[in-house]
Structure formats: structure tokens, C-alpha cells
Amino acid sequence: MTPPLISAELAAFATGFTLDAVPAEVRERARHLMLDALGIGLASTQWDFARTTLAGLRELAGPGGDVPVIGHGQMLPLRDAVVMNALLIHGLDYDDTHPAGVIHATTSVLPAVLGLGTRLGSSGRDLLAAYVLGMEAATRIGAAAKSGFHQIGFHPTGLVGTFGCTLAAGRLLQLGQRQLVDAQGIALSVASGSLECLEDGAWTKRLHPGWGAASGITAATLGKHGFVGPGAAYEGRFGLYASHLGPELLAKADLSMVTAGLGEVWEVMNVAVKPVPACHFTHAFADAASILSKDWNGAPIRRIVARVPTGAMKAVCEPIDKKLRPANAYDAQFSVPYSVATGLRFGRFTLDALDPAAYQDPETLRIAALVECQSDPDADFPRYFGGEVIVELVDGRTLRHHEPINRGAAGRPISNADIVAKYHDNAARAVDRAHADHLLHAVLGIEQGEAAALAQVLGRAAQGR
């Protein structure tokens, strides 16, 4: 008997999906993940990449628009607003990550459902249901590749995020199963995301989640109107996995993971909240070095060894010359040597580490140059993004700390109270406390609210604009 198509199974799940079927603790965690993302979006309004992107999108869109842009007091047309809002959430690389899928799912799914929900006048309950649905789909689709997309050079947040957003948008648009199957097939032809940007610190990674969100909305809307897409979007001869993994990595993938446990195991609870504003692969090293900071206390260093999971080496240790001397904030966020040096010197890695004065600081660069990255094939990756830092001092002492489970992962979860504290730290960079509190209550109370009302609060201009 021929097994059902994955797209058909996902479509059946999506069309029958209701918020009442989601356990209370999952809904609560989902609301806090949304809060975390929107706080980061507010903080991003203060950075040049936000102003540059908005200027370009504003020129393309022309006057008008019906969806608010986070913290800017401006409106853009739906798909432009979705691209912009996703860029703000993802732009500082401080957004949540699903470790098994190696995907920032919230940063594409949330802007998609918030933008489309605003356009449609959706209730807060429908917005939250679509968000949870999109998260459950995107994380599973990413996990099935067993981190293979990264190895080839594709960014799952944009590539896989498109499919999660297609299903979430289809839920808001009330698509039938046949329409949702077509929509996922359409998504296969518009999903994208290249990691070439990591080679020179280009800004294009910031565009990926928003492009995936806008593409997902487009695919769902075309499917609604009868546009025909291929059925085997995932397992087909030229489907997502075969075309983006190649034969060797495809053999290692487990496509059964896409639909395993749907409606029973909630991947929202396995999403890791970032405690450090950098690539998740670097967190264990920033934290380990920060813990060693007091014992080190500035003593002369002979060398530093960072033991890095083999699957993370390409992203955060290569090419080594760019990791030792970051040329921009993106280089800094994807550098184990810089993360270790910053943690040792300052006892923590914050958004301040992304300032040019920080990543160009001679003393920090001197310490970074002492870091030697070594592959650790025994690390439990990608389940966890662990790491070990070993500091060999000139006086003969050796300081070492191992973080096998990165802070924020399922084995060391960040509490909802911690998320609220992080939200306030980020929001304070852009808005006053009263505005931050207003938004917090709108997000955490979304089940009693409306998508458009939340978007309006979120769109109010940040300070100094």
C-alpha cells in the first residue's frame, strides 16, 4: 500500500487543527515565545540594517499600506510589512531556535500570521492557533533533514520556514485539504535561503525569514484560488529533501519525523530561547568563558582551546581568519573565538558586543587570536549546541568549563519569567516602560484580543523616531 504524501498528512492535520486541542502549557509557552520575538524586534529598530531595509521596502511599496511595521509608526502592504517585521525579529540573531530542526521558526511564522491576521481581522485565538500550527510543522520539517541543510549551505529558517508559513497562512485563510496540498507544492518553488552571507558578513540572512513568510502567504493564497502545485513537495524525486540535500545526506534524513507525533508531542516546548545575541552554536562558548572569567582574572594566557561540535564547525569556526577578526556584527555573532574572548574579558556577551568598538577592540582581538577550535565528534549535536573552553595559562594552570547542554535548550530551559526579563531588556532600547508593559499585556492576553489590535500597539513609533 502506497503511504500517504507528507503534504497530504500535514494538510489533514492543519484543516482539523483547533486551539482547544493545544494544552494550556503549550499555549502559554507559545505566547511567551511571541513576546520574546517582539521585544527583539523593538530593539532592532535602533540599528542601521532596519533603517536601510525600510527605506528600500518603502520605495518599492509606494505610499500607503495596511499592516504596521514594528516600532516605526508606519504601514506597509502586507507582504512588505511581513518581510520587514521578520527582519527586525531575526536581525540581531537573538531569536529562538529549535535545536533539532536548527531553525528560527518564530521569526518567520509570527510575522506571517500577525500580518495576515491583521489583514483578515482574525481573532487572537485564531492568530495563536495558526502560530502554533506553523511552529509544529516548520520544526519537524527542519528536524527531518538531520542538520543536512546547513551542511549544503541552505538556511532552514528561510527554506523550511516557507512551508511552516504556508500551513499557518492556510489555517487563517481556511483552506481545504486539496488547496493546502497544492499550496505546499507551490511553496517548494518559492522557498529559498543561501548561507553564502556567512562568508563575508552580508545582510541577506536577515531577509530569509521574511521572504519565507511572504512566500508562504503567497503560496497559500494561490492555493486558495486553485493554483495547482506538485503533490510530493517533500519526498518527491525533486522534492525538498532530494533537491536540497543530495544523495548522501538524503540517505541520513528521516522523513517520518515530519508527521511523527503531530497533535501529541508539542515541539513548541522544545524551542530554545536565546540567552545570548549570537548564533546559537556559540552560546556554550560565551557562557563557558564567562564562567571562567573570574578565575582567569587577566592572567597571561598561553593558548585557548574551544571544543566545538563537528556539525557546527563550518558555521562558527570557518574560515578561521574571519572568525579571529570579525569585520562586522554578523562575523562577531558567528565566531567562537570572539565569543570566548568577549566572555573572558567581560563576563557576559550582550548586544553591546555587536558594536564596532567592541569587535574591533585590540585586546579582545588579541585574546581571540589565542583560540584554537577543535572538532568534537562526541558532542550531542544537533540535539544540543554544547561546547567546552580550555584556557592554558602561562603560569601552568589550566582552566576549563564544559557546557554539554547549552543554556536555553530543552535540557536547560529558560523560564517564562526569564523571557519576560529579556523582553524588558530589549524593549527598553526602543520604548518606555509604559509602552513595553502595554505590549506585554497585549501579547500574553492575545487569546482575549484581536490580531489587528496587537499589530497597532506593536507598530507605534519607537523613541527618537
TrEMBL record:
Q: One Pfam family, short name please?
A: MmgE_PrpD_C
Q: Which Gene3D superfamilies match?
A: 2-methylcitrate dehydratase PrpD
Superkingdom per UniProt: Bacteria
GO terms, molecular function? lyase activity
Q: Where is the MmgE/PrpD N-terminal domain?
A: 9-247
Please report the stretch or stretches of sequence annotated as the MmgE/PrpD C-terminal domain: 277-442
Q: Which family does it belong to?
A: Belongs to the PrpD family.
Q: What is this protein called?
A: 2-methylcitrate dehydratase PrpD
Query: Could you tell me which species this protein originates from?
Result: Pseudorhodoferax soli
High-level lineage: Bacteria, Pseudomonadati, Pseudomonadota, Betaproteobacteria, Burkholderiales
